[in-house]
Amino acid sequence: AQTVTQSQPEMSVQEAETVTLSCTYDTSESDYYLFWYKQPPSRQMILVIRQEAYKQQNATENRFSVNFQKAAKSFSLKISDSQLGDTAMYFCAFMKPVSDGLTFGKGTHLIIQP
Amino acid sequence: NAGVTQTPKFRILKIGQSMTLQCAQDMNHNYMYWYRQDPGMGLKLIYYSVGAGITDKGEVPNGYNVSRSTTEDFPLRLELAAPSQTSVYFCASTAMTGATEAFFGQGTRLTVV
Q1: Hey, where are the domains in chain B?
Q2: A2 and chain B: CB distance < 8 Å anywhere?
Q3: What domains sit in chain A, N to C, each tagged with a CATH number?
Q4: Dihedrals phi, psi of B85, to nearest 5 degrees
Q5: Would you state the pLDDT for residue B1?
Q6: A19-65: pLDDT as tens digits
Q7: How far apart are CA B74 and CA B21, in angstroms?
Q8: What phi and psi values does residue B83 have, to the nearest 5 degrees?
Q9: Does B39 touch chain A (CB under 8 A)?
Q10: What per-residue confidence (pLDDT) applies to A56?
Q11: How near does any CA of chain B get to the CA of A43, in Å?
């Protein structure tokens, strides 16, 4: 079984700053997929970014980018030029190729201060 | 474009009662999932289905049952509700395996008293 660990329960930064959320995972699989999901107070789960383990290039989506270190089993999320709307819970998630569901970390509550 | 629709959004149950959480998707996705989210925790997989007529247990299936008679619907049944089932329940669907985006419903907040 795989596990996902997010060691930062809560983080707070000023608007426009850059923030990095940490995620480590443990698996015996060689092929898998990693995701960051955002959950604002509305409770809706929103995909932020995804990474295929076989791709060495780190994924980027506008202000969001990841630092994927396969050997270290690390998958951190960097948010540049943070905005008030980025305030939310952020969950790191893992999935095997057979799609028997996502394994989530406990989440990091990110607060962007004006 | 409705996506994944869950009903109800809120529900209070008494211990020992039963109920069904409804989930429907209109994207013709084969894969559907039920998760629960306890306070301060990530989502945990209860059951999943890879297509009509096929279901399988996830990490925390005890106390729940599912069925998948159509591609669109994936109801979750709670029998003999217990306080430990107080949680927020999410239904999700994906089109295929891999790095495909999972689409989530808005969640059902269930309280068992």
Answers
A1: 4-112
A2: no
A3: 3-113 (2.60.40.10)
A4: -90, 5
A5: 64
A6: 999 999 999 998 999 999 999 999 999 999 999 999 989 999 999 99
A7: 9
A8: -55, -30
A9: no
A10: 87
A11: 7
A52 alpha carbon, distance to own chain's centre: 13
**Contact B102/A at CB under 8 A:** yes
State the amino acid at position A107 in one-letter form: G
The C-alpha R_g of chain B, in whole angstroms, comes to 13
Q: Which CATH class is domain B4-112?
A: mainly beta
Q: Other CB atoms closer than 10 Å to residue A10's CB: what's the count?
A: 10
CA distance B64 to B74: 13
Three-state DSSP state, B49? strand
Q: Would the pLDDT of A93 be above 90?
A: yes
Chain A residues within an 8 Å CB radius of B48: 100-101
Say if residues A112 and A83 touch (Cβ distance below 8 Å). yes
Q: Tens digits of per-residue pLDDT, B56-94?
A: 999 999 999 999 999 999 999 999 999 999 999 999 999
**Are B49 and B32 contacting, i.e. CB atoms less than 8 angstroms apart?**
yes
Q: What is the pLDDT of residue A78?
A: 98
pLDDT of residue B54: 95
Quick: pLDDT tens for B14-43: 999 999 999 999 999 999 999 999 988 899
Which chain A positions have a beta carbon within 8 Å of B43's beta carbon? 45, 91, 102, 104
8 A C-beta contact, residue A70 and residue A47: no
Instruction: Give percent of chain A with pLDDT exceeding 70.
Output: 99
